[in-house]
Specification:
This is Olfactory receptor 7D4-like. Putative odorant or sperm cell receptor. The chain has about 300 residues and is an all-alpha fold. Helices cover about 80% and strands about 5% of the residues. The protein has one domain: Rhopdopsin 7-helix transmembrane proteins. The chain is built from eleven helices and three strands, in the order αβααβαααβααααα. The protein has a three-stranded mixed β-sheet with strand order 2-1-3.
Length: about 300
């Protein structure tokens, strides 16, 4: 009964990126700016795709889902961080922390899955162009996204149910700016062996399988491009993959950077700073990557702004 009460009354303390009072206004302004750019940029991508019939294709259907997930992904962590800075507080309730852990895992996993589905879409478009519309039909596209959501919902729920069995000491400190599962397990007062095993297995399956799928898709795409005789055809085919490949490199590059930083250094502050790259910076850059490198998206955005201007 005592252990149960210990969990119920616990309040975690998020130490954030820095405890220097002079840096807090700078951090608040920086993260608020990045958050607003992320939300606005991804919303514009979604609106452009919804409003332009030319973009009602599988590739842009997956892109709109990715933009929605990026908004939710950033909204899971940044608003609470901004609220704590503004209120000069480090507190986050037990329920709030567990909720943040759950949705962080859901949206991070969805990012991973959607990038894999998008790689498959590019593989079919380039390697099997004549059968593309038959294979990537609307029903399959919706089914793939639903499978991704259901899979990550249940995997994340299993982790949360296991965390619910742990006990925590009152006033536990988390050396991070948000609640992350790995950090939660490190500060638990009870045995976390089962939790860690599930975490490693889930990470291996949910990261390695999607990454393997992406690498396989692009190996087939490169092989197909090598067989093309037309230079113009090669450029056109590769240009459709350029934005996706950039986002994949950014997502996995920053995630790997966080992992290596955590493994090499014992400084929790450096690990937290590295985490900013894939939790805040990557979702912010994705709209720019897709809009700057994609003439269809740029055209849709121009038409969207023109309609907005004519209505005002």
């Amino acid at each position: 009964m005592g252990a149960r009460n210990q969990t119920e009354v616990s309040v975690f303390l998020l130490l954030g990126l820095s405890e220097d009072p002079e840096l807090q206004p700078l951090l608040f302004g920086l993260f608020l700016s990045m958050y607003l750019v992320t939300v606005l940029g991804n919303l514009l991508i979604i609106l452009a795709i919804l409003s332009d019939s030319h973009l009602h294709t599988p590739m842009y259907f997956f892109l709109s889902n990715l933009s929605l997930v990026d908004i939710c992904f950033t909204s899971t962590t940044v608003p609470k961080m901004l609220l704590n800075i503004q209120a000069h507080s480090k507190d986050i309730s037990y329920i709030g922390c567990i909720t943040q852990v759950y949705f962080f895992m859901v949206f991070a996993g969805m990012d991973d899955f959607l990038l894999t589905v998008m790689a498959y879409d590019r593989y079919v478009a380039i390697c099997h162009p004549l059968h593309y519309t038959v294979i990537m039909n609307p029903r399959l596209c919706v089914l793939l996204v639903l499978i991704c959501w259901l899979t990550i919902f249940w995997v994340s729920l299993i982790h949360i149910l296991l965390v619910g069995q742990l006990t925590f000491c009152p006033g536990t400190e988390l050396p991070h700016f948000f609640c992350e599962l790995a950090q939660i397990l490190k500060v638990a007062c009870s045995d976390t062996l089962i939790n860690n095993i599930c975490l490693y297995v889930a990470t291996a399956l949910l990261c390695m399988f999607p990454l393997t799928g992406i690498l396989f898709s692009y190996s087939q795409i490169v092989s197909s491009l090598m067989r093309m005789s037309s230079t113009e055809g090669k450029y056109k085919a590769f240009s459709t993959c350029g934005s996706h490949l950039s986002v994949v490199s950014l997502f996995y590059g920053t995630s790997l950077g966080v992992y290596l930083t955590s493994a090499v250094t014992h400084s929790s502050q450096r690990s937290s700073v590295a985490s900013v790259m894939y939790t805040v910076v990557t979702p912010m850059l994705n709209p720019f990557i897709y809009s700057l490198r994609n003439k269809d998206v740029k055209g849709a955005l121009r038409r969207l702004f023109s309609r907005a201007a004519s209505c005002s």
